[in-house]
């Protein structure tokens, strides 16, 4: 560091280590700052309390005075409320529109012979085996092995789905991602009905 | 100790100065180890010698309010500073309560620093206005410049970043966090020279334009010390996987978009890349993440201490599955899409949790609203006893819930509860939320920061004044019954430094009850309260060392002081105030 070792010259610098009240750098006694008379009464210089005109920013007129008895204020949009940063607000709007386009998330699953339908979230699964296992679990049945030639061989249940065009398709023919974006409904067909598919 | 007595104790053979028992070199060596700026302030107040030793040895200066002091005063007092942290606008500017062009421009600081701090290495700015010209000036004026961090700043574009990338040959940190930036293009990243290798921290998560991926990949490969990388949403999973291979030593990672578009083979490669990143402590990004690819992350989560999911709208199930793999979590930021069920999983899986922030995914209730309730918060409090920092946005709360929570977690230092409908009472009892915050301040003796919400009477503020003896920051909105509330706070909270109030029935009596106190505080903000211009003028007259600034709104009554900002300053009134800021 470029500076001299001695600040106050070579003489004894008692002042430098003196402990005093007051900020270093100020000499002599600090004048006691008197901030003025403090009164207990309401020190409003105005004669009357200004009645605040209701700005369109605020939706609160009287929070405490009988506030308990009045209904909560209407859900108007207040500037800067809730207190979240603008970058967070913007990203939510975008997210919202993205989610709205996501077809094929929760789809109904019907099983022939079952008294009521179920719903599954297709986005929870990464592949056909995962989905089929979940369906097996949900409805307590087994599905046979899938093969391109034979379909689901070895069981009386066959998973099918309704696609965007309204056709009933066999589950497993198209790539998974394509499937989840086009699947609108699932139906687990049973026994006699499936034999008609087997004729293809 | 009596200085005379000190003299007598010394060896008579000593001829040189005996005023100090420590030689200055020793004192400076010792002081160099004192890092906290609060401690350094205390040191400087001991005596003149210590004041001098401290000022010569200070290398980092923190200025919490850029208008409290002038750049000339700073450089005169601290000649050897290498690192500066500056904060500008009042915090409520984050929520659009401060009009644009308010001030806090970094330019005048840079001009003075360029003359006196040639060796400046670090600049960290929050809520300042920074122009492209300023960034270029910075890049050209300081040959040793290493670290630039811009948080919630405005006024610049990606051109300014290009200047930094081009000229700062020794840059180690570029942290562009949540700014209001004019995002022209992603070319700035390509401005880093091909022989530039010093980067350790790169955060451009909140920039929107595409950067040249090949340039980024080359940059990441050649910067061998890179340990923090946060990319923006345009970086795909496949590209992320390539970056991870170049930088397996990362400790902090912000991913790009996690949108499904991988083949099975690509997915397993991604999973393998994450498993190599065993040093990750911090993970963020994950925008558009769904259950589909989250499992790829699991191998990287073992050592995670901070997980920031505030950009990822996860549902409770996939969130719970992820948490199982994060046992060491200390800090968690999440969206309320995870709902109470997700928070129950937090309580079950994260015993070391210290900080939780739950952000609202649908703050304006544009869709079907779920979010989190008091049950989620209670569940976390049972499972995470070390919790001391919370920011919680919810739509319903009860006094009983908060009482339980603070009983479980009495060590809160930061308690920020936002019940999103203003003036909402306890939804079960229909009472005000007074009891809740009374419990908080009574139980949490270490409380330093508090934000209140819901229907509140003066009782809350009486309790705050009576019990919150360590409170430094208080944020109040739509609360209180009369001036008495604010008077209690100003009278009782000895350590109060920042008080920000909006839409409360506090008027001149409240404002003026604190005028001795404001000099020991950093600042006071009051907007849409009952304060008048005359009240502010009175305050300004009585306290010349305070800057009392009023911003008027169009169309409001002449006598009303719509927005009041009061702060202590040794630099006198602002010389750069725009027309809408009246300095009284």
Write up what this structure looks like.
The complex is a heterodimer of chains A (200) and B (584). Chain A is an alpha+beta fold and 200 residues long. Chain A has helices at residues 86-101, 128-139, 176-182, 191-198; strands spanning 106-111, 118-121, 145-147, 151-153, 157-162, 168-170, 185-190. Helix content of chain B is 32%, strand content 17%. Chain B has 20 helices and 23 strands. Chain B has a 21-stranded mixed sheet, with helices on one face. In chain B, strands 5-7 form a two-stranded parallel sheet. In chain B, helix 2 crosses helix 4 (48-57). Chains A and B meet through helix 1 of A and helix 4, helix 19 and helix 20 of B.
Notable traits:
heterodimer; A: 200 residues; alpha+beta; five-stranded mixed beta sheet; 4 helices; elongated; disordered N terminus; B: 584 residues; alpha/beta; 21-stranded mixed beta sheet; two-stranded parallel ribbon; 20 helices
Question: How would you sum up this structure in a few lines?
Answer:
The complex is a heterodimer of chains A (200) and B (584). By secondary structure, chain A is α+β, with helices and mostly antiparallel strands. Helices cover 22% and strands 16% of the residues of chain A.
């Amino acid at each position: 560091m470029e500076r001299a070792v001695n600040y106050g010259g070579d003489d004894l610098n008692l002042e430098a280590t003196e402990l005093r009240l007051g900020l270093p750098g100020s000499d002599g006694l600090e004048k006691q700052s008197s901030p003025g008379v403090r009164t207990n009464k309401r020190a409003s210089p105005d004669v009357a309390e200004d009645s605040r005109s209701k700005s369109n920013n605020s939706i609160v007129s009287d929070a405490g005075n009988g506030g308990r008895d009045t209904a909560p204020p209407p859900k108007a949009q207040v500037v800067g409320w809730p207190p979240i940063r603008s970058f967070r607000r913007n990203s939510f709007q975008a997210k919202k529109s993205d989610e709205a386009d996501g077809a094929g998330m929760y789809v109904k699953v019907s099983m022939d012979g079952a008294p009521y339908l179920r719903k599954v979230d297709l986005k929870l699964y990464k592949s056909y085996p995962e989905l089929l296992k979940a369906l097996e679990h949900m409805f307590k049945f087994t599905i046979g092995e899938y093969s391109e030639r034979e379909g689901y061989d070895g069981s009386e249940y066959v998973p099918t789905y309704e696609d965007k065009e309204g056709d009933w398709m066999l589950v497993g023919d198209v790539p998974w991602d394509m499937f989840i974006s086009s699947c609108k409904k699932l139906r687990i067909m049973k026994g006699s009905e499936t034999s008609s598919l087997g004729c293809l | 100790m009596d200085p005379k007595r000190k003299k007598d104790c010394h060896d008579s053979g000593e001829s040189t100065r005996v005023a100090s028992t420590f030689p200055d070199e020793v004192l400076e060596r010792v002081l160099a180890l004192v890092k906290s700026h609060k401690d350094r302030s205390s040191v400087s107040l001991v005596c003149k010698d210590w004041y001098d030793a401290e000022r010569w040895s200070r290398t980092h200066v923190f200025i919490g309010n850029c208008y409290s002091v002038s750049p000339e005063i700073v450089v005169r007092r601290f000649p050897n500073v290498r690192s500066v942290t500056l904060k500008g606008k009042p915090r409520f500017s984050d929520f659009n309560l401060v009009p644009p062009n308010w001030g806090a421009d970094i330019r005048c600081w840079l001009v003075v620093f360029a003359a006196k701090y040639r060796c400046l290495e670090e600049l960290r700015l929050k809520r300042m206005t920074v122009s492209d010209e300023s960034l270029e000036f910075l890049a050209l004026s300081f040959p040793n410049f290493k670290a630039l961090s811009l948080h919630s700043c405005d006024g610049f574009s990606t051109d300014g970043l290009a200047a930094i990338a081009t000229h700062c040959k020794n840059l180690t940190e570029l942290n562009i966090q949540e700014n209001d930036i004019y995002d022209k293009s992603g070319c700035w990243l390509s401005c880093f020279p091909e022989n530039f290798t010093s980067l350790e921290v790169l955060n451009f998560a909140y920039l929107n334009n595409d950067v040249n991926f090949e340039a980024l990949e080359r940059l990441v490969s050649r910067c061998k010390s890179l340990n923090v990388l946060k990319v923006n949403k345009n970086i795909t999973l496949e590209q992320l996987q390539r970056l991870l291979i170049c930088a397996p030593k990362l400790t902090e990672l912000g991913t790009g978009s996690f949108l499904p578009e991988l083949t099975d083979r690509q997915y397993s490669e991604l999973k393998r890349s994450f498993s190599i990143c065993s040093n990750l402590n911090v993970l963020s990004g994950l925008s558009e993440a769904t259950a589909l690819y989250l499992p790829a992350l699991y191998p990287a989560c073992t050592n995670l201490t901070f997980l920031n999911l505030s950009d990822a709208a996860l549902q409770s199930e996939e969130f719970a599955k992820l948490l199982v793999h994060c046992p060491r979590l200390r800090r968690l930021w999440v969206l309320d899409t995870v709902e109470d069920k997700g928070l129950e999983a937090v309580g079950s899986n994260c015993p070391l949790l210290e900080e939780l922030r739950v952000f609202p995914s649908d703050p304006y209730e544009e869709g079907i609203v779920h979010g989190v309730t008091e049950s989620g918060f209670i569940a976390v409090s049972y499972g995470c006893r070390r919790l001391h920092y919370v920011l919680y946005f919810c739509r319903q709360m009860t006094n009983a819930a908060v009482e339980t929570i603070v009983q479980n977690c009495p060590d809160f230092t930061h308690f920020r509860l936002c019940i999103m409908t203003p003036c909402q009472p306890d939804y079960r009892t229909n009472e005000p939320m007074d009891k809740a915050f009374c419990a908080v301040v009574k139980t949490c003796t270490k409380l330093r920061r508090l934000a209140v919400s819901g229907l509140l009477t003066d009782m809350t503020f009486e309790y705050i004044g009576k019990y919150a003896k360590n409170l430094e920051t208080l944020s109040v909105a739509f609360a209180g019954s009369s001036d008495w509330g604010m008077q209690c706070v100003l009278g009782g909270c000895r350590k109060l430094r920042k008080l920000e109030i909006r839409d409360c029935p506090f008027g001149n009596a409240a404002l003026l009850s604190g005028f001795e106190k404001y000099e020991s505080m950093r600042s006071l903000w009051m907007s849409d309260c009952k304060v008048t211009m005359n009240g502010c003028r009175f305050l300004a007259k009585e306290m010349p060392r305070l800057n009392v600034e009023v911003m008027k709104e169009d169309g409001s009554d002449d006598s009303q002081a719509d927005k009041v900002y009061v702060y202590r300053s040794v630099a006198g009134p602002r010389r750069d105030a725009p027309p809408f800021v009246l300095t009284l």
